[in-house]
Amino acid sequence: MYRVMEPPDKEDGQYYFVQKGAILANDFFTESMFRKNWDTPEEYREFLVRETLDYVVIEQEYVESFQTNELDLLQEIVRRGEAKVDYEDPHLMYIVFDVRATTKN
Protein backbone atom coordinates (compact mmCIF):
# COMPACT_ATOMS: atom_id res chain seq x y z
CA MET A 1 0.00 0.00 0.00
CA TYR A 2 1.56 3.27 -1.15
CA ARG A 3 0.94 6.89 -0.28
CA VAL A 4 2.38 8.87 -3.21
CA MET A 5 2.57 12.57 -2.42
CA GLU A 6 3.06 14.66 -5.56
CA PRO A 7 2.49 18.31 -6.40
CA PRO A 8 -0.77 19.39 -8.05
CA ASP A 9 -1.36 18.28 -11.64
CA LYS A 10 1.58 15.86 -11.61
CA GLU A 11 0.02 12.44 -11.03
CA ASP A 12 2.52 10.75 -13.37
CA GLY A 13 4.30 9.12 -10.42
CA GLN A 14 1.04 7.66 -9.14
CA TYR A 15 0.31 6.34 -12.62
CA TYR A 16 3.76 4.71 -12.76
CA PHE A 17 3.19 2.99 -9.39
CA VAL A 18 -0.25 1.71 -10.45
CA GLN A 19 1.20 0.48 -13.75
CA LYS A 20 3.70 -1.61 -11.78
CA GLY A 21 0.96 -3.13 -9.63
CA ALA A 22 1.07 -0.91 -6.54
CA ILE A 23 -2.09 -0.21 -4.59
CA LEU A 24 -2.55 3.45 -3.74
CA ALA A 25 -3.90 4.43 -0.34
CA ASN A 26 -5.37 7.60 -1.80
CA ASP A 27 -7.41 8.23 -4.91
CA PHE A 28 -5.52 8.89 -8.08
CA PHE A 29 -5.84 12.69 -8.17
CA THR A 30 -4.08 15.14 -5.88
CA GLU A 31 -7.39 16.84 -5.02
CA SER A 32 -8.42 13.73 -3.10
CA MET A 33 -5.25 13.39 -1.04
CA PHE A 34 -5.51 13.71 2.70
CA ARG A 35 -3.04 16.37 3.74
CA LYS A 36 -2.59 18.20 6.99
CA ASN A 37 -0.09 19.09 9.67
CA TRP A 38 -0.03 16.47 12.39
CA ASP A 39 0.59 17.60 15.96
CA THR A 40 3.02 14.81 16.91
CA PRO A 41 4.93 11.93 15.32
CA GLU A 42 2.60 9.60 17.27
CA GLU A 43 -0.48 11.15 15.65
CA TYR A 44 1.12 10.72 12.23
CA ARG A 45 2.07 7.13 13.09
CA GLU A 46 -1.59 6.45 13.97
CA PHE A 47 -2.54 7.74 10.50
CA LEU A 48 0.00 5.39 8.87
CA VAL A 49 -1.38 2.44 10.84
CA ARG A 50 -5.02 3.34 10.12
CA GLU A 51 -4.27 3.53 6.40
CA THR A 52 -2.23 0.27 6.57
CA LEU A 53 0.57 1.89 4.59
CA ASP A 54 3.74 0.11 3.55
CA TYR A 55 5.49 2.99 1.77
CA VAL A 56 5.21 6.76 1.62
CA VAL A 57 6.69 8.45 -1.43
CA ILE A 58 7.00 12.20 -1.08
CA GLU A 59 8.26 14.70 -3.62
CA GLN A 60 10.07 17.85 -2.60
CA GLU A 61 7.77 19.84 -4.86
CA TYR A 62 4.78 18.49 -2.88
CA VAL A 63 6.35 19.71 0.35
CA GLU A 64 6.96 23.13 -1.19
CA SER A 65 3.43 23.32 -2.64
CA PHE A 66 1.51 22.37 0.50
CA GLN A 67 3.98 23.15 3.29
CA THR A 68 2.84 20.31 5.52
CA ASN A 69 5.03 18.73 8.17
CA GLU A 70 4.72 15.22 6.71
CA LEU A 71 8.32 15.06 5.47
CA ASP A 72 9.61 16.24 8.86
CA LEU A 73 7.55 13.57 10.62
CA LEU A 74 8.74 10.86 8.27
CA GLN A 75 12.33 11.89 8.93
CA GLU A 76 11.63 11.83 12.68
CA ILE A 77 10.26 8.29 12.63
CA VAL A 78 13.32 7.25 10.62
CA ARG A 79 15.56 8.79 13.32
CA ARG A 80 13.61 6.79 15.91
CA GLY A 81 14.23 3.59 13.95
CA GLU A 82 10.51 3.12 13.26
CA ALA A 83 10.91 3.46 9.48
CA LYS A 84 13.69 3.64 6.94
CA VAL A 85 14.53 5.42 3.73
CA ASP A 86 14.13 2.83 1.00
CA TYR A 87 15.27 5.10 -1.83
CA GLU A 88 16.35 8.70 -2.21
CA ASP A 89 16.48 10.27 -5.63
CA PRO A 90 20.04 11.44 -6.41
CA HIS A 91 18.65 14.86 -7.34
CA LEU A 92 16.68 15.03 -4.06
CA MET A 93 13.41 15.31 -5.96
CA TYR A 94 11.70 12.55 -3.97
CA ILE A 95 12.21 10.05 -1.16
CA VAL A 96 10.64 6.61 -0.66
CA PHE A 97 10.06 5.74 3.00
CA ASP A 98 9.47 2.15 4.10
CA VAL A 99 7.03 2.49 7.01
CA ARG A 100 6.17 -1.19 7.41
CA ALA A 101 7.98 -1.41 10.77
CA THR A 102 5.76 1.43 11.99
CA THR A 103 2.46 0.08 10.71
CA LYS A 104 2.93 -3.60 11.51
CA ASN A 105 3.75 -3.19 15.21
Describe the structure.
It contains five helices and four strands; from the N terminus they run E-H-H-E-H-H-E-E-H. The chain has one domain (2-103). It has helices at 12-19, 41-50, 60-66, 70-79, 100-103, and strands spanning 2-5, 55-59, 84-88, 94-98. It is an alpha+beta fold.
Question: How much is the radius of gyration in Å?
Answer: 13 Å
Cα shape: globular
Q: If you average the pLDDT, what whole number results? A: 85
Helix-strand topology string: EHHEHHEEH
The helix content, as a percent range, equals 25-40%
**Major sheet characteristics:** 4 strands, mixed
What are the main properties of this structure?
105 residues; alpha+beta; four-stranded mixed sheet; 5 helices; 4 strands; globular
Quick synopsis:
The chain has 105 residues and is of the alpha+beta class. Helices cover 37% and strands 18% of the residues.
Topology:
Elements: E1 2-5, H1 12-19, H2 41-50, E2 55-59, H3 60-66, H4 70-79, E3 84-88, E4 94-98, H5 100-103
Parallel strand pairs: 1-2
Antiparallel strand pairs: 2-4, 3-4
